[in-house]
Design brief:
It is a single chain. With 410 residues, this protein is an alpha+beta fold. Helices cover 52% and strands 10% of the residues. It is built from 19 helices and 12 strands. It has a 5-stranded mixed beta sheet with strand order 1-2-8-5-3. The chain has a 3-stranded antiparallel beta sheet with strand order 4-12-9. β6 and β7 form a beta hairpin. It is globular, with a radius of gyration of 21 Å. The protein binds protoporphyrin IX containing FE (HEM).
Length: 410
């Protein structure tokens, strides 16, 4: 029988440049990667189809469990359980890893603070902070010849905003960053269990203390709202409040930071598109949207099938791990013409960089706002950034971005 070779999305060679692998996988349709024990969905239509059947393609056990199974040989050991905090989580529910009816209740707890009206109120804060950070970036380039776009702008902007929204001091930015890096680091094949474990334990302990304080003494912030919510007629457990905080902190940080970095590189690779934006800053929102499609940071997330099913004409059995490849779907040539080019305002299909259906990104409007105000600030002030040295990439199966982007002015 003819065997087709399936690209290994977990290998460093593929994560360094996954797009050829995504193209090959789109050609194959839904396919099982035997080596990694996972079905892969790369076509736009198949990704949407799976996301619209959340009870068949379950997030419960799909998200954490599959990734946990990949983190080193110690899977299932108490050492590993400690790293991910599973021993302390017990029955606590995590929204992104839950199915209806739990998901519906948990989502209701946080959907009000993330309405369009609330987000509009954050625009002023985002614009003011961005102006300050861009000033500092420009000053540093003037004084030192170059500066790091990631450190000066792409990291502090989202972390400061999400800290404000949650109600924790943004002066702890360095800790938040270290904690989210540790959690995202667990996605890598090789981790230093002791080091990552210590960071994650510190993060849980911090949010545990804050959650208990806010229960006793509520403030006008998101943690207090989560701690006081009664989705089941009673309050969430403290561990559930902690998991919410960690989800918002990590999901709200790494993603937007990486989108900003990826976009800068997209502009360097497509200088005509940067010139269009600089000449007409009102294109910023469209530039963000195309950035999400072309270089959205979230590559893939995982589901687990609850029953036998047919997707894209292929039978997938119950209890299968399924990788939903958002970034592959966003370059599907059946939906996007000339998909490997970054073209602001391109006509046609809708990207799935924020997912789709019931788990659609809660922070999508916030992420769009943060990224747009940065592009507007750079374009309106005509700041032509040029590479100031080699960038450092961070790439794994789930996330793609940069940890360092030295820049100078052209
Ligand atoms: C460029 C930035 C971002 C990207 C590309 C992104 C991407 C995604 C994706 C693909 C999902 C779907 C997960 C799934 O289907 O399993 C998701 C869910 C989620 N995102 Fe984002 N995200 C971004 C920014 C943010 C921000 C700023 C926040 C914080 C406020 C946030 C919070 C969340 C939460 C809480 C969920 C879970 C929603 C649910 O399970 O119902 N994200 N995001």
């Amino acid at each position: 029988m003819e065997t087709t070779s399936i690209p290994d999305l977990f290998s460093p060679e593929v994560t360094a440049d996954p797009h050829p692998a995504y193209r090959a996988l789109r050609g194959l349709g839904p396919v099982r990667d035997d080596a990694n024990n996972v079905w892969l969905l790369a076509r736009h239509a198949d990704v949407l189809d799976a996301l619209h059947q959340p009870t068949v393609f379950s997030s419960e056990g799909g998200f954490g469990e599959f990734l946990a199974g990949r983190i080193g040989p110690a899977a299932g050991s108490s050492e590993r359980a400690g790293v991910l905090g599973f021993d302390r989580i017990g029955d606590a529910r995590l929204m992104i890893a839950s199915d209806p009816p739990d998901h519906t209740k948990l989502r209701r707890v946080v959907s009000r603070p993330f309405t369009k009206r609330r987000i509009a109120a954050w625009e002023e804060m985002a614009t003011g902070l961005t102006a300050t950070l861009v000033d500092q970036l420009v000053e540093r380039i003037r004084d030192e010849g170059s500066a790091d776009l990631t450190k000066e702008l792409a990291v502090p902007l989202p972390v400061t905003l999400i800290a404000e929204i949650l109600g924790v001091p943004s002066s702890m930015m360095a800790d938040f960053r270290r904690w989210s890096d540790a959690l995202v680091g667990t996605l890598a094949a090789e981790i230093d269990v002791a080091e990552v474990g210590a960071d994650l334990a510190e993060m849980s302990a911090f949010f545990f203390t804050v959650a208990e304080q806010r229960r006793r003494d509520p403030k006008d912030d998101l943690i207090s709202a989560i701690a006081a919510a009664t989705p089941d007629g009673e309050q969430l457990s403290t561990m559930e409040v902690v998991l919410f905080c960690i989800l918002l902190l990590v999901a709200g940080n790494e993603t937007t930071t990486n989108l900003l970095g990826n976009l800068q590189h997209a502009f360097w690779d497509h200088p005509d598109q940067w010139r269009r934006l600089r000449d007409d800053p009102s294109l910023a929102a469209a530039a963000v949207e195309e950035g999400l499609r072309f270089c959205g940071p979230v590559q893939a997330l995982f589901r687990r099938t609850t029953q036998d099913c047919v997707l894209g004409g292929v039978e997938i059995p119950a209890e299968a791990n399924v990788g939903v490849l958002f970034a592959a779907a966003n370059r599907d040539e059946a939906v996007f013409e000339d998909p490997d080019r970054y073209v602001i305002g391109r006509p046609g299909g809708e990207h799935v960089a924020f997912g789709h259906g019931i788990h659609y990104c809660l922070g999508a409007q916030l992420a769009r706002l943060e990224t747009r105000v940065v592009l507007e600030a750079l374009a309106e002030r005509g700041i032509d950034l040029a590479p100031g040295g080699p960038s450092v990439r961070t790439a794994n199966t789930v996330l793609q971005g940069y940890t360092s982007i030295p820049v100078t002015t052209a």
